[in-house]
C-alpha cells in the first residue's frame, strides 16, 4: 500500500490529524532549520511570544505542555541569539516581561508567512476557506479538551 492509500482507508480522525501534523512539521522544519536560529522544539514557545506578547513563561509552559525550566532554557537561548529581550517585571520581581526584538519579529513574521502558505495550500482544493476550517478545528479542539476535563 502507498502512504496515500493508508490515509484514504483510515476510519479515524486522529490518523488524519497525525498525518497533517507530520507533513506540516516536515514542511515548516525546512524553513526553521535553514532560515532561523530557533529549533523546531522551540517553535511554539517562540510563536506564542509573537501572538501573545503579554504572556508569561508559566503560561507558555502550560500552553506548550512543558515545564517552566524548559521554557526558561529556551528563553535564555533566544536572548543569547538576540531574538528576545527580558526585563524583570517591576510589579512581580519573580517574573520577566519578555518582548521580541526586531530580529525576533522578523523571524516570527517569516514563520507566520510560511504557516499561512501551508494552510492555504492544504485548503486550496477544498470547498472551505482557511478561516472556516480553523473555526471547525477550534471547535473540535475545545470539545476534546472539555471531554477530557469532564472525564478525567
Walkthrough of the structure:
There is one protein chain. The chain has seven helices and two strands, in the order αααααββαα. It has a two-stranded antiparallel sheet. It is globular. It is mainly alpha-helical and 152 residues long. It has one domain (3-151): Winged helix-like DNA-binding domain superfamily/Winged helix DNA-binding domain (Arc Repressor Mutant, subunit A, Orthogonal Bundle). Strand 1 (84-89) and strand 2 (92-100) form a beta hairpin.
Q: Uncertain segments of ≥5 residues (pLDDT<50)?
A: none
**Name of the CATH superfamily:** Winged helix-like DNA-binding domain superfamily/Winged helix DNA-binding domain
Count of individual beta strands: 2
What share of the residues does DSSP label as strand, in percent? Answer: 5-15%
- The mean pLDDT is 91
What would CATH call the class?
Answer: Mainly Alpha
Radius of gyration: 18 Å
**Major sheet: order of its strands?**
1-2
Helix content: 55-70%
Given helix and strand content, the structural type is mainly alpha
Brief digest:
The protein is mostly helical.
Please supply descriptive tags for the structure shown above.
Arc Repressor Mutant, subunit A; mainly alpha; 10% strand; single chain; 68% helix; 152 residues
Sequence-ordered SSE layout with sheet pairings:
Elements: H1 3-9, H2 13-35, H3 43-51, H4 57-63, H5 68-80, E1 84-89, E2 92-100, H6 102-123, H7 130-151
Antiparallel strand pairs: 1-2
